[in-house]
Amino acid sequence: MKIDVIKLDGGIAGSVDLGEDIFGLEPRADILHRVVRWQRNNAQQGTHKVKTRSETNYSTKKIYKQKGTGGARHGDRNAPIFRKGGIYKGPTPRSHGHDLTKKFRALGLKHALSAKAAEGNLVVIDAAAMDAPKTSQLAKQIKNLGWKRALIIDGAQLDENFAMAARNIEGLDVLPSMGANVYDILKRDTLVITRAGLEALEARLQ
After folding, report:
1. Both 107 and 157 in a single domain?
2. Are residues 156 and 107 part of one domain?
């Protein structure tokens, strides 16, 4: 699959061949769903916590005599049935993460890249670099290119000036090649990859 390479100013900088084994797959929603679910579950903190019967701050004295009241038999007011009593089987801190094999995660990334290519929302640029961290200049270039919600994937290292200029532009994310992931790719409308990022991704997914 051949695709044109553009510059940030909109000019053409040649073309590149995209590997069919990475960018030419038929996207499968079930694979993408499993990988996104794995990502989001691992990102969940799992710090939710309620107080159980042994942790609430009430007297443990028996609230009334066992027999003769005509009511139910109760011990202390920490019981879950009472207001401000302990919570029965409530959430406790835990990990929500689960395992997913490296091969399946790599397959999910391939399908995410292929999905963007199939939609026509994949753009390859020559480089994501600037002489100075000028947010206004970059924002103007992004607007002229028509990118509203875009993810830019660069090589192993980000250009510091470009990263600083991009961080205040709404809807624009910049990641190194090792940070490329299914969730961020699918979340944005346009996927932009530099030449260096393309080489790094192909080497990572071979």
Report:
1. yes
2. yes
Q: Please tell me whether residues 40 and 137 are part of one structural domain.
A: yes
Q: Are residues 81 and 154 in the same domain?
A: no
Distance CA 174, CA 72 (A): 63
Which pLDDT band holds residue 60 (cuts at 50, 70, 90)?
A: confident
Task: Please state the domain count of the chain.
Answer: 2
pLDDT at site 66? 94
**Per-residue pLDDT, 9:** 87
Nearest to 22 by CA among 3, 9, 45: 3
| Distance of alpha carbon 152 from alpha carbon 175, whole angstroms | 6
Domain with 67 in it: 50-90
Whether 195 contacts 5, CB under 8 Å: yes
Please give the Cα distance from 65 to 38 (Å, whole number). 53
How far apart are the C-alpha atoms of 35 and 104, rounded to whole Å?
8
Distances, alpha carbon 84 to alpha carbons 57, 73, 120, 183, in Å: 9, 18, 57, 40
Q: What pTM value is reported for the model?
A: 0.83
Are the beta carbons of 129 and 115 closer than 8 angstroms? no
Report angle CA 142, 143, 149 to the nearest 5 degrees.
Answer: 70
User: Please, which residues have CB within 8 angstroms of residue 106's CB and are 6 or more apart in sequence?
Assistant: 204, 205
110 and 37 within one domain: yes
Are 30 and 60 contained in the same domain?
no
Claim to verify: residue 40 and residue 58 sit in the same structural domain: no
